[in-house]
Write a structure and sequence with these properties.
The protein is of the alpha/beta class. The protein is 31% helix and 17% strand. It folds into two domains: 1-161, Flavodoxin domain (Rossmann fold); 173-238, Alpha-Beta Plaits, CATH 3.30.70. It binds flavin mononucleotide. Flavin mononucleotide binds at residues 9-14, 57-61, 86-91, 118-122, 170, 210-212.
């Protein structure tokens, strides 16, 4: 039996949550980082006896579109999956339900899921510093409970609605500033292919999913987005995002 920790984590919050949950299973995990090694997922032969942790951030209450595209190319054989939707202290809306649908279409059986808070990757004033110690304790407990129940084949009722919430993206698209040396790291790692390798100073705003991976990886801090737009969006969201949201387990 193999255990895979599969995560899509442009700015590191989802990876932090996935690592805690993986630790809580007490299994040896093989990591599949969907950004650093986008082709690894397709090369793995997922077998019935295997277990996968699949962790994604919630974007507008949905899963990032590029994750759907990646799983479309996967063929699992009744492989069990634990679903993790990570969110920036607003809410996950249909994220878990959509992830369930995408994984089932690829042959996985979803045996458990959770929603977990991490710092908001666009508006860092929300969910600041999370997952924190309290989150870690809860997530480890969630993982232990899932493992006690890991022989189950039943899919829990995840929150959300079909058709899913409409998501048209956000108007925050990072661009290069004068410090850009065209090293090309952002272009190489952009999960949406929105930065041309031969001209990393450009951003294709139609392709960009605002994941902020380019901002996070740039060694020169040469990519940023409009702080004014972010500030205004933050004011609008303050009411719904300020109080501490809980992590939740679905078994
Ligand atoms: C484009 C975009 C849309 C987002 N939409 C939501 C949302 O609807 N609800 C929410 O609570 N957080 C939302 N967030 C915050 C992320 O879900 C959260 O910060 C997550 O931890 C980011 O994962 P990462 O650190 O692995 O990149 C959004 C973030 C981005 C970049």
């Amino acid at each position: 039996m193999r255990f895979y920790n599969i995560f899509f984590s442009p700015t590191g919050g989802t990876e932090k949550v996935a690592d805690i949950v993986a630790k809580g299973t007490k299994l040896d995990a093989e990591e599949i980082d969907l950004i650093k090694e986008p082709n690894k997922l397709m090369k793995v032969k997922f077998e019935k006896k295997d277990l996968c942790l699949v962790a994604v951030p919630s974007y507008g209450g949905r899963i990032p579109s590029v994750v759907t595209d990646m799983f479309r190319k996967v063929k699992a054989d009744g492989t069990k999956a634990i679903l993790v939707a990570v969110f920036g202290n607003r809410m996950i809306d249909d994220t878990l339900l959509e992830l369930q649908d995408v994984l089932e279409a690829s042959g996985f059986v979803c045996i458990a899921g959770m929603e977990a808070v991490a710092e908001h990757s666009l508006m860092h004033q929300f969910g600041t510093g999370r997952p924190d110690q309290q989150d870690e304790k809860e997530l480890l407990e969630f993982a232990a409970k899932i493992m006690q129940n890991s022989e189950a084949q039943r899919t829990p009722a995840f929150p959300g609605n079909r058709p899913y919430r409409e998501y048209g993206g956000v108007p925050l698209k990072p661009v290069a500033n004068g410090k850009c040396t065209s090293c090309g790291l952002c272009a190489k790692e952009c999960p949406a292919g929105a930065i041309p390798l031969d001209n990393p100073k450009m951003t294709d705003k139609d392709k960009c999913i605002s994941c902020m991976h380019c901002v996070a990886v740039c060694p020169k801090k040469a990519r940023n987005y409009s702080k004014l737009v972010s500030f205004i969006a933050g004011l609008k969201m303050k009411k719904v995002c300020s109080s501490r949201k809980e992590n939740k387990l679905y078994l």
